Amino acid sequence: MLNILVVDDEKNIQDLMRDILTDEGFNVETVGSITSAKDLIRKNSYDLIFLDVWLSDGEGLDLIPFIKENSNNSFIVMISGHANIPIAVRAIKEGAFDFLEKPLSTETILAVIEKVEREIKIKQNLEYFKEKEESNVEIIGNSPKIVELKKQIEKIAKTNAWVMILGENGTGKELVAKSIHYQSNRKDFPFVDINCAAIPDELFEAEFFGYEKGAFTNAFTRRIGKLELADKGTLFLDEVADMSLSSQAKLLRVLEEKEFSRLGSNLKIKVDLRVISATNKDIQKEVEKGTFRQDLAFRLAVIPIYVPPLRERGEDILLLADYFLKKFALENKVEPPILSEEVKNTFLNYNWPGNVRELKNLMERLVILNNESIIYNKDLPPYMFGNIKVEQEEYIPITIRPLKDAKEELEKQIIKKALKVYNNNLKEVAKALDIDLSSLYRKIKQYNLEE
């Protein structure tokens, strides 16, 4: 149930709003002046404030800064019988959520309330997930390298310096980025992540800058870009070294200017953000190869941080394994199994090419599939002991023949291998091959791959 304040000096508007809103079950108070409104806002908390543009003791627009200072979570909807575009623009710029013209109808009032309720719900969900995420950014480990990393994070977080996180795949670079964000003075604002490797050049501007309705075909609604979402918070550029050179040029320009326009608009949007980037590549080598811009590297890597691989973290491996076992046991409502001494030794001697991500996935699998209270070496995958046999790939001879025949033979072998890897789970095979099920069925029949 929303708490609503109506600020309007016309008695009939006050009565109309009170009747409509009370009938809908909202708590409503009405006042006719800026002075009275200030008194109530100091004492009470309001979800929504309907505010007339012209009041007996001043302009309603002048009350907006006071509301923002004393009741920052209140949504403000301006109402006016003499509305014009400059006033509406100024109201929105000052921080109003919406602008309604008199005469007001029940449908108009309830429609704007519905929009406010939706925004409140989104905000509450964001706060819930932020709180949940904030509690899950602990970097687990006591090894010297991790202790040093934690010290670096604590020191860097207090500054506004841009950071580049370096390390192998699966080492926890995103976790380090979140840890910096949630220890910084930007922690109450968004942490927005974007996988740079997954964005084609033609979608770069739409993803980063956003677009207006009608900006291009299929732009049916306005979309806010990642840069705007990250305003006052942190923008995390994952896999930044995988961006194309043209995308790098666009990114550098906007990061230097901190100003951009949505596609389909000439309105300049200014942002205040901190940029944290991450890559598993050697940036200097990428610069030397000409695949990464030197000026962008300088801009992003003001402070470089290295995240060590799991194999260099010693006993942290066992700490993390125990943490993940308990986590997944809790999620699956089972008792957490215990690692035997032989498994502990295997873990400490294993190279962990997939790092923390590999360990996490293995622990989840062991919790779900293990039926005993203790995990032994027999429960681990064979590759961890270095004795897995590498299956010989079927060789397709290079001969002069019609390309259609060569293509079909290669397609047959790929489908055959996928069926084996995914244990004939056709949905998974279709997903891996990026084709629909009907096409997969047809090709299996065509190549006589039915079992």
What does it look like?
The structure is a single chain. The chain is an alpha/beta fold. It is built from 18 helices and 18 strands. The strands form 6 sheets. The protein has a 5-stranded parallel beta sheet, sandwiched between helices. It has a 5-stranded parallel beta sheet with strand order 9-12-15-8-16. It has a two-stranded antiparallel ribbon with strand order 4-5. The longest helix is centred in the first third of the chain and has 29 residues, at 106-134.
SSE map:
Blueprint: E1 3-7, H1 11-23, E2 27-31, H2 34-43, E3 48-52, E4 54-55, E5 58-59, H3 64-70, E6 75-80, H4 85-94, E7 98-101, H5 106-134, H6 144-157, E8 163-166, H7 173-182, E9 191-195, H8 204-209, E10 210-211, E11 223-224, H9 226-229, E12 234-238, H10 245-257, E13 259-260, E14 269-270, E15 274-279, H11 283-289, H12 294-300, E16 303-306, H13 316-331, E17 338-339, H14 341-349, H15 355-369, E18 374-375, H16 403-421, H17 426-433, H18 437-446
Helix pairs in contact: 6-7, 13-15
